[in-house]
Amino acid sequence: MIDFLIIGQGLAGSLLAWELIQRGSKVVIIDNGRENASQVAAGLINPVTGMRFVKSADVDTLLPAAKRRYFQLAYFFHQEFYVEKPMLRIFQSDSELKNAAKRINNPDYQAYLGGIQPPGKTIDDLATPFGFLEQKQTGYLLTRPLLSCLKAFFIANNSYRQADFDYRDVQLQPSLRWLDIAPKQIIFCEGHQATQNPWFCDLPFQPVKGEILTLEHQISLPDKILNYGNWLIPLNARQIRIGATFDRENLDTRTTEQGKNELLAALSQVSTGLTKATLTNHQANIRPCTLDKQPFIGRHPKHQQLAIFNGFGAKGSLQIPRYSQLFADALLSGNPLPKTCNIQRYYETHFTG
C-alpha cells in the first residue's frame, strides 16, 4: 500500500519524501525528469536580508534544522551539499550603512552580523563606496548534486517513477487513484506549475522568473559570497555564479539578452576587473513565490486526500527542511501546522464555498 504519492522531485518534493520515508511511510515520487527551478537555483541561505537588514522569519529555528538535515544527507551520501561561507554585504547607499549600524547593536542579530567596514576601506578589486558588512551563518546548497543523489536513492527504494503527470488521470471517487497507483494521499510539490493545478490554482501564487550566469574570470576575489543588490557565489578560484533577475511578466524558462545584460551591468559596478569575465552558462527558471511570502502547505479543504507542499520561493534551501518535518508531523500524527504556512489561512478568509 502506498501512503503518499508526491508530484515533483524538486527540493520540496525530495526533502518531504526523504522525511516521510525515514518515518516508515511508503512513498512514490512522480517526476517528468526535466530541469526544475531547484536545479537552477543558487540555493543561497542568508538569514538577514533587504535594505533594512531584517532577519528571516523563524530563522533561529529554520537554520539549525536546515544545517542538521544537510549534514545528515552529507553523511548518508558521503558527499557535502551545504557550503558555509561568509557574505560581504556591499552597501548601495548611505541609508543602508545607517540601517546596518542600527542592527549591529541588536542582540537578536549578533549571531548573524559581523563588523561594519566604513567607506574608504577597500577589499581586493571591489568597489565599496559606502562601505560593507560581513554577514555570518550564510552559505549555499549544492542543489543539483543533492537532487541527483536523492533521485538515485528513491529509484533504489522503488520510490520514483518518471512520467508526465496529468491531473485528468486522478480519480477521487470511490477511492483515490492515479493510473495504477492507489495512494492514501497525493501531495503536490510542483513548484510554479501549481498555478495550473485544478485543486490549488486559486491559491495566490506570484511566480517570478529568475536568470543566473556562470562566469570564468582571472582576477583575485575574496572567498566569500558577495551581496551588492544581486549576489555572487565563488564556486572556485576562477569561477563564479551571479544572479538573479526578478521578472514577474515573462514566465518562461528562456534565457534573455536583457537578463544577461542587467546582471553584467550590476556586476561591473562592483568590479571593473570582472567585466572581462567569460560567460560559460546562462540559465533561467521560475520561482514559486506567494503573495504573502509564506509557503502553501496543507490539505485541500474539500478533498482531504489531496495536499500541497509548495510556495517556498527564493528561501527553499532555508525553509524546506524544517517545514517538511512539520508537515510530516501533521500528516502522520495530526499535529496542527503553523497558521502562517497553513493554506487554511486563505480558505478561511479569502475564499467562500
Structure explained in plain terms:
The chain has 8 helices and 21 strands. By secondary structure, it is α+β, with helices and mostly antiparallel strands. The strands form 5 sheets. An 8-stranded mixed β-sheet has the order 8-9-7-16-17-18-15-19, sandwiched between helices. The protein has a 6-stranded mixed β-sheet with strand order 11-2-1-14-21-20. It has a 3-stranded antiparallel β-sheet with strand order 3-10-6, with helices on one face. A hairpin with a 5-residue loop joins strand 12 and strand 13.
Provide key terms for this protein:
alpha+beta, eight-stranded mixed sheet, six-stranded mixed sheet, globular
Concise account of the structure shown:
The protein is an alpha+beta fold.
Topology, please?
Elements: E1 4-7, H1 11-22, E2 27-31, H2 37-40, E3 44-45, E4 48-49, E5 54-55, H3 59-77, E6 82-84, E7 87-90, H4 94-104, E8 113-117, E9 132-135, E10 139-141, H5 143-156, E11 160-162, E12 170-171, E13 177-178, E14 185-188, E15 208-216, E16 225-227, E17 231-236, E18 239-243, H6 257-270, E19 278-287, E20 296-299, E21 306-310, H7 316-333, H8 344-349
Parallel strand pairs: 1-2, 1-14, 2-11, 7-16, 14-21
Antiparallel strand pairs: 3-10, 4-5, 6-10, 7-9, 8-9, 12-13, 15-18, 15-19, 16-17, 17-18, 20-21
Helix pairs in contact: 1-7, 3-7
Tell me the major beta sheet: 8 strands, mixed
Structural class: alpha+beta
Q: Over the alpha carbons, how many angstroms does the gyration radius reach?
A: 21 Å
Helix content: 25-40%
- Shape category: globular
Reading side by side through the largest sheet, how are the strands ordered? 8-9-7-16-17-18-15-19
Measured between the Cα atoms of the first and last residue, the distance is 33 Å
What is the string of helix and strand elements?
A: EHEHEEEHEEHEEEHEEEEEEEEHEEEHH
Overall pLDDT score: 94
Q: How many helices does DSSP assign?
A: 8
Number of strands: 21
Unreliable spans? none
Strand portion, in percent? 15-25%
